[in-house]
Specification:
Elements: H1 3-6, H2 13-33, E1 36-42, H3 61-69, E2 71-73, E3 76-77, H4 83-92, H5 96-99, H6 126-132, E4 136-142, E5 166-170, H7 194-209, H8 217-245, E6 248-250, E7 253-256, H9 264-278, E8 284-289, H10 310-332, E9 339-345, H11 377-380, E10 384-387, E11 396-398, E12 402-403, H12 407-414, H13 431-434, E13 445-450, E14 453-459, E15 468-475, E16 498-508, H14 527-544, H15 554-557, H16 580-588, H17 601-607
Helix pairs in contact: 7-8, 9-10, 10-17
Length: 611
């Protein structure tokens, strides 16, 4: 109770009113002191794609300025090298294996909206915790952590279940199938006997016409029928996939099916700006989860042709523009000094991204080996930029190992809550490191999973500057000199696609960050003792992992008709669009800059840097 309350007479109603007003003001002031949280995640962005990480050929002025005004992490690690498990780890601060968002079969991510797997409701996300602390929360963009369980409308895995009050985005991911002419991610046609049937049929007809063999009419009809059926199945599947998987939601309502991607970044940016404006008087958490620069590549008209790296570079330019718009609204509303901004990628660039026309659209991971879907540094070392003027010194660079799981405890503590003690949290609060109160990361060991398989372990000894990394198996590259898997378009970690190592491959990343030369007992005298320490850490880690139901089993990954989100009847192929006014607004947003910039797309790229 306050001093004023102790001296107050009960018979004085004006004093009571004054006390209530003062207490209400104090509560409001306490709430306003909680920092806003803007977390931005680009999809498949390579650490080498940004100017602040050394790129000289792409223009990313807004992200570069973010790094200049904040802290750049140079040893920032994604907890997984694929979208679904990486995002689960980011939201929960836990290795994906702990939540069951890991499996033993490929592909290791959800590829259908009508799958029953997802982030379990008993998992605690940072959004769920800060919402309880009075924050308004929103997810704008990509989710990729499930949607339904038992019906097409139960939305048991929807972002709202995990603490997001508002959602505008896609429940799955941006796929080739969502854009005409970009092919399909479903390459099952390779396993159908389509070509074989055609060759057999043509050969048989030729031999029959030359008199070498006699073909019964029934066999000919059977082969022709089979060929026609296979053709219809393939054509039908390619036709309906966009309507099944390419869904845009606003909260729980389907607003587009299939969605139009070309201007979607502008629409997402507008939604983000509107959310910040609506909630500028209270603490908020915004998770802006970009669809770019994931396949299939797209960019709006203002950014197409603005880079020397094709559509991929154009998409990076558009992401940078969007970041600039977010920073502008924070500046305009005078929220910058009370807002922690974080920007990262969910994993490294997808090196094997090749269009249907054979164009290579992958990004660049700088000096780091390989890319997405591998635990080589190129697959998991990602950008990490944090800015909070007045609270985090600007212009800094931290080379200590950090993880995207660290955002969970950081965000939770900043909201005024405590980190849950009823479960293992693998992330560590970053604030002491960011504010230069400590020099060492709390991550002595980091464990790298490929699906449910423990692939590698990283050790940063407390008394050493070395960062050791040991691989228990590595993916089989094709071609071998490309550090990529162009034969499968993504590397797999199932036993038939990897090579096991005994003893493990050992690297010292402090001396060999590109992982070019494995160490041996001849080149590293402490070889065996280093591996012994790491293997002991692995055993401790395994003991800490409690068995849970996998969300990425064949049963949870498969397409289930009764779970399919559909805004119309199946006979109408689940098609719908927003109302006409929204369509007109979308057309107006085709160029996000002033009309004077329409004749100069390059001006659109840099315009938003003037804050």
């Amino acid at each position: 109770m306050s001093v004023l309350a102790l001296n107050m007479k009960p018979s004085c109603p004006s004093s009571l009113l004054l006390l209530l007003l003062l207490e209400t003001s104090c509560v409001s002031l306490q709430g306003s002191n909680k920092p806003n949280l803007v977390l931005m995640m680009v999809d498949d962005l390579g650490i080498g794609d940004l100017g602040c990480y050394g790129n000289k050929t792409l223009r990313t002025p807004n992200i570069d300025q973010l790094a200049q005004e904040g802290v750049k992490l140079t040893h920032h690690i994604a907890a997984a090298s694929l979208c679904t498990p990486s995002r689960a780890a980011f939201l929960t601060g836990r290795y994906p294996i702990r939540s069951g968002v890991a499996g033993s079969i490929r592909p290791g991510v959800f590829i259908f909206n009508a799958a029953s797997g997802g982030l379990p409701s008993q998992e605690v996300t940072f959004a769920k915790i800060v919402k309880q602390q009075g924050y308004e929360t929103a997810l704008i963009g990509k989710w990729h952590l499930g949607l339904n369980c038992e019906s097409s409308e139960d939305h048991c895995h929807h972002p709202s279940v995990h603490g997001f009050n508002y959602f505008f985005g896609i429940p799955l991911t941006n796929m080739r199938d969502c854009q005409p002419g970009h092919g399909t991610v479903f390459q099952f046609y390779k396993f159908l006997p389509y070509r074989t049937l055609g060759i057999v049929l043509v050969t048989a007809v030729l031999l029959h016409s030359c008199g070498f063999i006699t073909i019964r009419r029934g066999l000919t009809l059977f082969l022709l029928t089979l060929l026609v059926v296979v053709t219809i199945v393939m054509a039908g599947f390619y036709t309906i996939v966009p309507y099944f998987n390419c869904v845009l939601l606003r909260d729980h309502r389907i607003v587009e099916q299939p969605f139009t991607s070309v201007n979607l970044t502008q629409r997402m940016t507008s939604e983000a700006v509107d959310f910040i404006e609506r909630n500028s008087a209270r603490p908020f958490l915004l998770f802006l989860s970009f669809l770019q620069v994931h396949t299939a590549m797209f960019a709006s008209a203002a950014f197409r042709g603005t880079s020397s790296h094709g559509i991929y570079g154009d998409a990076v330019h558009e992401v940078d523009w969007s970041v600039g718009q977010v920073m502008q609204i924070l500046d305009r509303l005078k929220l910058s000094e009370n807002t922690l901004v974080y920007l990262t990628s969910d994993q490294g660039a997808h090196l094997e991204e090749v269009s249907a026309r054979g164009e290579v659209h992958g990004g660049w991971n700088g000096i780091y080996k390989a890319g997405k879907s591998t635990n080589w540094e190129g697959g998991i070392r990602v950008p990490g930029i944090l800015r909070w003027p007045g609270s985090i010194p600007g212009g800094g660079q931290i080379e200590e190992p950090t993880s995207n799981m660290d955002l969970f405890p950081t965000v939770v503590k900043l909201s005024g809550a405590s980190v849950p003690e009823d479960r293992q949290i693998d992330g560590h609060d970053l604030m002491d490191l960011l504010q230069q109160r400590v020099e060492r990361s709390n991550h002595e060991f980091l464990f790298h999973y490929c699906n449910a398989y423990l692939n590698a372990v990283r050790w940063h000894p407390q008394n050493s500057s070395s960062v050791w990394k040991a691989f228990f198996f590595t993916p089989n590259f094709y071609p071998e000199d490309r550090a990529a898997c162009f034969h499968t378009l993504v590397c797999f970690c199932t036993p038939d696609h990897v090579t096991y190592h005994d003893p493990p491959l050992l690297f010292d990343l402090s001396r060999d960050p590109s992982e070019t030369t494995p160490l041996t007992p001849d080149t590293e005298p402490a070889f065996h003792s280093i591996l012994a320490v790491m293997e002991e850490a692995v055993e401790r880690h395994h003991r800490s992992v409690k068995p849970v139901q996998s969300q990425l089993t064949a049963g949870n990954l498969m397409w289930k008709p009764w779970l399919q989100p559909c805004c119309s009847s199946f006979t109408q192929l689940c098609q719908c669009q927003e109302d006409q006014q929204d369509q007109e607004d979308q057309q107006d947003q085709e160029d996000p800059q002033d009309p004077k910039d329409q004749q100069d797309p390059e001006a659109a790229v840099g315009a938003s840097n003037e804050r």
